[in-house]
Description:
Chain A is mainly α. Chain A contains 14 helices and no strands.
Amino acid sequence: MAVQLLRRLRSGGPGTSSARHPGGRAVTAALLVPAIAFLALFFFYPILITFGTSITPADGTGVTLEEYSTILSSPKDWGVIALTLGLAVGTTVISVLLAVPLALILRRRIRGHQALRLLVLAPLMILALVSALGLLILWDRNGWLNLLFSRLLPFSDGPLQIDYTIPGLLIFYTWLYSPFTILTTLSAVEGIDPNVEEAARVSGAAPWRVFRSVTLPLAWPGIRAGSVLTFLLAFGAFSVPLIAGGNHRPLPVLIYTEAAVFQNFERGSALAMVMAVVALAAIALYTRFSSKPVRGSAG
Amino acid sequence: MRNLLVVCLVAAVVGAACTTTGPGASPAGSAAGAGGSITFADTAGGANFQKFFGSILPQASKDLGIEIKYVPGAGAELQTRLEAQKGAEVDVDLILLKPDVLGNMLKAGLAFEPLTDHATQIPNLAFIEPNDLKEAFGLPTNGQATPFFRDQFGLLFDSAKIPKPPTSWQEFFDRRAEWAGHIGMIRPDAKSGGGRLMLRDFLIGAGVDFKKPLPELQASAEWKAGLEKFREFAKAMYQPLASEPTVLFQQFKNGDVWISEYAIDFTLWSRDQGLLPETMKAAVFDSGMYGGAAYLAVPANTPAAKKELAYRVLDWLLSEQTQVRMQTEMWEYMAINKFDAVPAKTWETIPRWDDIQDKRIPLTNLDAFNWLKENGMTYAGG
């Protein structure tokens, strides 16, 4: 019965709201107009302008794909694309690895869980540029966080080199963008009916099996949504690598330098288009291959 | 009946909107904006100037009865906007800009109002050196811009670590091993021009003549030798180079960097804010270092009514009262020739204008400067 209803709704056949109300489609279209107008004005139009600039020669006449050809044949530019992707993927993986155990702990409402939840939100309350400068100071040779870690780590024989390094960027990105994965994962984990996990345990499943076959599949939609957000934000990160990246300058910094410093808008626009295509491709691949992440009944 | 109700409701909402947004609605707006409003775009000032303008512009609004919308931003972005508005009325009425940005704008065919044609509306122009109204460091401006302040670069060093600083580029190069890994520099391709100016000053110190056009310069032996010498010098630098001045200051503060070349004004201001060690000192090489200025200009296609207001604000900015504040609070040299009005104790902190006037090397040869911007990292990367 339910399946039939769903089919009817999908086909727009008898029983749907449009059919019941003859003006339904017009109302739907009218309601969509503001959103479409907004997208057209503030999303598609700037993208079209950027694309137009990227294929227009500096003298403003004709069409050229020279900038794209230069980018795609430059090992240096490929290196920048790889760095940008690597940082975004690395940040996403670390965020997921942090988010899942943290969510499992927080849902038990241990003592101090509210303070921990607030702490998770802290990076979202501070401007990225301010965070970048703060992290740079905290992790520099005389920064107290660096001094603390260098004393705690047995293999360290002095201050750690964190600022201006790729591991440093991963730490900074994770601090800034992991809350998005943590919050959605926490929301998904807290939404799981404890009875489902209890039933698995009663049926003889070991804790790891319960986690792998019940908890993780049920929480996966939340993890996936959050990790996509983290990936996109890390992919587009600008302030942090500009301030704390040193010679590691990902695509957004390169685009900024080309457009705002060198005033080479053609190359800047082409790089921006390449960045958009790479981000879209990465997300498309991720959503395709992450739809069934683990064996389980709820994926 | 229902339709009538809807019409009444809409009329009430529209009426309320007009009442709240109409002239004189806001007491603040009526006080400052009674004489109209202008948009003032600042592409030259950093954080220090944003703070300074935040404190002086409300006073200007009060004195003149003109609302001043202050918009800080980048020169390249403003140029793009002005180019897009060519042939139409612009939405910026007064601009503060550095000579290289002014040069790029004039090169792009953007026109500015000849201020010298409006000397009666801007009486303080009389206190500007006449030549400063004709050209901006070799760039013919023909009255289209007036200096607002004059800044100076210098050798900046932590006197606690370097009690005896070098007095010339050659000495700096020769003694680089003493400070290996502690010589700082801002990336030549950063938004801040500090790094490329340091590179340029180094090349001038190495005997490169920036009066030559770029192709001739690139073909010269001095240019090639100078760049190679700089590549050698950069090996003693702290790497990675600072991406922006704030990062350079941080490197100074945590002891990674001990010595560099940068703007004296911004450095002293930042030292006063606690962003740099108190032991920071500045000096100017006898061979000279970059001396610049920031210019005020009114776009030619600003609406006529707005131009009148812009001239009045411009005159206020060139007034003795404002210029003295800029000298004593911002450590900038005044644009007007009224140094006698500056309190004597100011000269205990910075050298007198007469003492540095001949050591200032202006920004000329924009082609060569832009080349250094785009290619400098090849030599400065360490």
